[in-house]
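Database export, one record per block. Field names are fixed; values are copied verbatim from the stored entry.
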Amino acid sequence: MHLRLLAVGDRQPSWVDEAVGIYSERLPREWKFRLDTIPTARRGKNDKSLQARDTEGELIMSKLAATEQMMLLDERGKQLTSKSLAGCLSDWQSDGRDLCFVIGGPDGVSAACRQRADFTWSLSQLTLPHGMARVLFAEQMYRAWSLQTGHPYHRA
């Protein structure tokens, strides 16, 4: 199984890249984790349209393989405990398809992306900066793996 994070926003602070790198290096090699980014669409200062969101949505959809399971990270999704995430991850893995987790842009994702999602996961009820969401995602993937394998990282 391959595991991929597809995120809108190609410029993040160095601490985000460093933290995601630390956790992704700990993931099992057979997951073949990869982070792919899509540039944030240009928005005008007073642009209230959803054109940028839809443009980003088209780019997201173009980067998804038809056989991938798409897991959307969105504040309106289902909240999971770390243990329940590990269980979901096991179920998703048993499906045999690659997994692609998606973080949308500043205005969320298009309706087409929402419809394409196999699962929508909320990391928190808090509004998180996109960089923080990436770090939290990477850490939770490592934690889920540690729960699956009995590794002592997860102590709760």
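Remark 1: The two ends are 27 Å apart (CA to CA).
Remark 2: The helical segments are 14-26, 51-63, 82-94, 111-116, 130-149.
End of record.
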